[in-house]
């Protein structure tokens, strides 16, 4: 939990078992390594109900372990409270963005800035493709994109 007056970011994808927990873990490690983790509230969630209660995909977990990035997460769905309490909600693709903006319309006190995580990518890859039906290389690509994007996001918000 971030200190009072701290910053907050919620990473979101469809099921919250592949892309968003990878982004959450990558960002948490970067914030920890930079000494800023205590200033942040960091979490991830899903637009859907498909995977609620499940751990991250084993291929994503293996990728994080390979890179020395700790990852502990249980999938959950985005709540109305998230829109009111998170400063940033960063999602992975246009479908997530549409779903989040639609949900945000039903929240009276929405304060979250809803953006694509890829909008921070110096290589201009806006969408982080879902690796669920892919292989280990697809998870590696998600990891690399998250590293690039989270680095820029952290720099801009430090």
UniProtKB/TrEMBL annotation:
Summary of the function given for this chain in its UniProt record: Acts on tyrosine phosphorylated proteins, low-MW aryl phosphates and natural and synthetic acyl phosphates.
Coiled-coil region(s): none
UniProt protein name: Low molecular weight phosphotyrosine protein phosphatase
Residue span(s) of domain Phosphotyrosine protein phosphatase I: 7-156
EC number(s) from the headed UniProt entry: 3.1.3.2, 3.1.3.48
Protein source organism: Ictalurus punctatus (Channel catfish)
CDD domains: LMWPTP
Molecular function, one GO term: acid phosphatase activity
Enzymatic reactions: O-phospho-L-tyrosyl-[protein] + H2O = L-tyrosyl-[protein] + phosphate; a phosphate monoester + H2O = an alcohol + phosphate
């Amino acid at each position: 939990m971030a200190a009072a007056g701290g910053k907050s970011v919620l990473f979101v994808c469809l099921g919250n078992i592949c892309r968003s927990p990878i982004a959450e873990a990558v960002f948490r490690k970067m914030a920890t390594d930079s000494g800023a983790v205590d200033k942040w509230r960091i979490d991830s969630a899903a637009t859907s109900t498909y995977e609620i209660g499940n751990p991250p995909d084993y291929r994503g977990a293996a990728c994080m372990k390979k890179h020395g990035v700790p990852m502990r997460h249980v999938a959950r769905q985005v709540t109305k409270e998230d829109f009111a309490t998170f400063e940033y909600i960063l999602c992975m693709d246009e479908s997530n963005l549409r779903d989040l903006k639609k949900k945000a319309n039903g929240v009276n006190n929405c304060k979250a800035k809803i953006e694509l995580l890829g909008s921070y990518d110096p290589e201009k890859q806006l969408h982080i493709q879902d690796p669920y039906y892919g292989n280990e290389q697809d998870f590696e690509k998600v990891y690399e994109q998250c590293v690039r994007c989270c680095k820029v996001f952290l720099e801009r918000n430090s």
